[in-house]
Structure formats: C-alpha cells, structure tokens
Here is the input.
Amino acid sequence: MTKNTTTKLKIITDTEAADILTQPNTLRQLEPFLARSLTVTEATKETGEKANTVLSRVRRFVKLGLLEVAQDIKRKGRSIKKYRTTADVFFVPYEATSAETLEVAMAERDAYWEDLLRKSVVKARVEDVGSWGTRIYRDERGRLQIQAAITPDKNYTMLDKSRPAVLSAWRDSVYLDFEDAKTLQREMFELLKKYQQKQGAQRYIVRLGVAPIN
Here is the structure.
C-alpha cells in the first residue's frame, strides 16, 4: 500500500497569524506542534514551560486557525487532546504582516536573533575572561580594524581549544569579484548545512551573512 505523503499547505492572510509565524519568539511557541501531533503535556516537556502557559497559547493558536485538534483520545474523565498545526507548510507574504515594508519585516525578525546572539556572546566572554575592551587601529593593509581586546596591545580571540565556541564578527571592507562572492555564498551555505545536520548536546545560535554594499 502506498503511503499518503501529501503535504498540506496554507497561505496566511490574517495579520495576527502572520505576525506569530514571522516573529521568532512566537514561532518557537508553535514549533512543537508543527507537522506533528502533541498533547499540551508533551509540549511542555520540550519547552520547559508551565502547562497553563502552553495551554493558553494553544487556545490562541486554535482560535487563529494555526492549530487544530488532531486527535481526541477518550478515557475515563476528561479526554486527552493532541494538537497539530493546520498545515505542514505555511507561506506568509510579508504584505500579510503588520510590518510597513519588507525591510521593517526583516528588521523585526532579525532583532530577536541579534539580541540572542549578542547576549550569548557577552555571557560566554564574561564567564571566560571577565571584562574586555575594544582595539581600534589600522592593520598592515591600511584597513580599519575594530577588535575585542583584553589589553591595548593584544586582540581577544576565542579560538583557543580551552575557550568557548563563540564568534561574532562583522566585516564591511571585504572586496570581491562577483565570482568570488558567489563562491563565498555557496561555501557559507554548505558549511551551515553541514553542521546543522549534527545532533550535539549543546544548542548554539549561528549567523552567516554576505551582501553587496552599494
């Protein structure tokens, strides 16, 4: 017998639902139920949150048409409900969100990850070396460098084996031909995909990015 593998798709037009799906903090609340059925109790074990908190969100998501009761297990007393998203794949046009422009929509989405990355980097560095400063200088190529440092004459690096796996770096003076930029793009994507497939013990936030400056 051939198994039905049809993927259920849904295009979102409701603004509140669109904002939930495009904002990382609320999307993570919905994530346990995405394309699979879970009880509220099972979801709380994954998120570590209180059952009443998760149940309140579930009711909101059901009202907005993002969740539905996938299974109602009968038993003595109150039945057990399993919830699942109303689609396996959601598509959210940015026009459906409350953001005024696509740039604003991206800024609102990225703000969550930028804040999480910044807090995580600072926490790891403080736990490793305590306080640090910033070195501002021109390197041997004549380019401006802004580097975290422990002392005025030495940059701070987390690459030593004994130090935490932390990196937060921005470069706005990388000059590439288009072919090299495309190679960098592909290599960064493949590197991210390679490590995203691993199932390690510690959760990390990773950000890679490249874009031309006009």
Remarks:
- The helical segments are 15-22, 24-30, 40-47, 51-63, 102-129, 178-196.
- The mean pLDDT is 90.
- The CA atoms of residues 181 and 211 lie 9 Å apart.
- The two ends are 56 Å apart (CA to CA).
